[in-house]
Each structure stands twice: as structure tokens, then as C-alpha cells.
């Protein structure tokens, strides 16, 4: 029994091979395109199988109920993940701070701000290219829901491609460099986003969404290799969590809400400037961030 227990534990953590940090760190990020394909693919199938009345009455609930299985799988994975060697070594050297958030905000607030800014572009790209674009496409631009979902599902494949390519390039150069490239590309995408989305051509809409999501791969894929470098081990988990979620709120909640308000106010032609602004903010954050000393 002891041997089998050790066997069950041994898979929990394997040290990442040297030079593969970003490729291993990008694995969780691949959950975004896979989750989008699963969720919106199911919505698309339900929309094709069901009439509008049935879909609005009960069909839209099916993907949410099915997600309970994924929650259970996620919980099982989380309960079976061990600590990293760096964290175990830090525990042996000294106990963790009793209130890591307080220490993080007191001693590493600059890294928190820079890390949060570095996350903004990826969320802005994702939510403007998915939820906001679907709303505008079906409500204002005259596309059928299933047609626009099909365009988004195809474009989503470029997000997965961008994540994989960005992670590979990050290991060959650095995660910081790739993030800077992606942030600069986000500014460029912002300038073409609205003309492409409102062009009236399904092909141009697909190209615009594909370009935006491919670019997102370059500001999302390297985050797993970049964010942990900003914080010392005792507050690393807290630092990564706070920065990622703070940047997510700004890029993934504030940005699409601002875009919706601008669209309702007749300023839809300027929505791309939100993406450009997100790219500039991420450029600044990544440029100013420095690796933690320990």
C-alpha cells in the first residue's frame, strides 16, 4: 500500500525541464480556447437543434448544467496537485508570512501594479472578440446567432495556435519579450478591430477575430512563465493571483462594459481605441516590471 501511495503522489509534481518553463506554464492557458470551443460549440449545436422558443426557455441552461462535470474534474485535479520544489524549500527555510496579502501589498506593490497592467490586454482582446462581438454581431450587424458563433469558433483555433507559438518563442527568447511583442500587436489590432467587425463581410469579420485572438495568444500564453518571476516565493502565489485577477477585472469587465456603453452612445467607431489603450497599458506594465530578487 505504501508503494502504491508513493506511486499516486509521484505524478503530482515533476520539475519542468530547464528551458521549457513557458511551454509548461502555458498549459492552463490552453483551457481558454478549449473551454470556448466546448461551451460555444454546445451553444451552437443547441441553437441548430432547437427552435428559438425552446432554446430561450430551457436550452441555454444545458451548457451550464454540463459544466458541473468540469467543476468536479477541476476539484479533483486541484486536490491532487503537490507544492513546487521552490515552495517546499521556502517552507523549510522559514514559515510563510501569516498574512501574505499584507506583505505583498506593503513590500511588492510595484510588482502588483506592473503585473496587473501586464494582464489587461489579454482579457480585453478575449472579451471584446467573444462576448461583445457576439452581441454586436447578432444585435446590430444582422448576423444570425449560429452564423456568428461559427465564425468565432473558427477564429478561436487561432487563439490556441497563438498560445502554443508564444510559449515556444518565450522559451527561445523570454516571456517578457514575447509579451512586449503581443502588447504592441494589440495596439495594431485595436486600429483595425472596428472596421473589420463592421465591414459587412463574413470573411473580414473572421479575419479580424482571428487576428485579435491570435494576438491574444502572445499576451496570454507567456503569462504563466512571466508573472511568477515578479514575486519572491513566500508571496508568489498571492502576487500572481492578485495581479491576474486585478488585470482581469480591468480588461475583462471594465473594457467590454465601456465598449457596450460607447456602442449604445453611438461611438462604436472608437471601440478599437479601447483595445489599443489596453495594449499600451500592458506595454507599460511589462516594460516596468522587474524580476524578484528571491
Question: Main traits of this protein?
Answer:
single chain, 294 residues, mainly alpha, Growth Hormone, Chain: A, 14 helices, 79% helix, disordered N terminus
Our count of helices gives 14
Q: In the CATH scheme, what's the topology name?
A: Growth Hormone, Chain: A
Work out the oligomeric state of the chains in this entry: single chain
- Give the low-pLDDT segments: 1-14
- The CATH architecture assignment turns out to be Up-down Bundle
> What would you give as the CATH superfamily?
MFS general substrate transporter like domains
Strand and helix layout:
Blueprint: H1 2-10, H2 21-25, H3 31-49, H4 52-59, H5 61-79, H6 85-93, H7 100-107, H8 109-139, H9 145-172, H10 175-197, H11 202-220, H12 223-226, H13 233-264, H14 271-288
Helix pairs in contact: 3-9, 7-13, 8-9, 8-10, 8-11, 8-13, 8-14, 9-10, 9-11, 10-11, 10-14, 13-14
Protein described:
There is one protein chain. With about 290 residues, this protein is mostly helical. It has a single domain, classed as Up-down Bundle (Growth Hormone, Chain: A). The protein contains 14 helices and no strands. It has helices at about 1-10, 20-25, 30-50, 50-60, 60-80, 85-95, 100-105, 110-140, 145-170, 175-195, 200-220, 225, 235-265, 270-290. α7 (about 100-105) crosses α13 (about 235-265), α8 runs parallel beside α13 (about 235-265) and α9 (about 145-170) packs antiparallel against α10 (about 175-195). It is globular, with a radius of gyration of 21 Å. The two termini are about 40 Å apart. The model is unreliable at about 1-15 (pLDDT under 50).
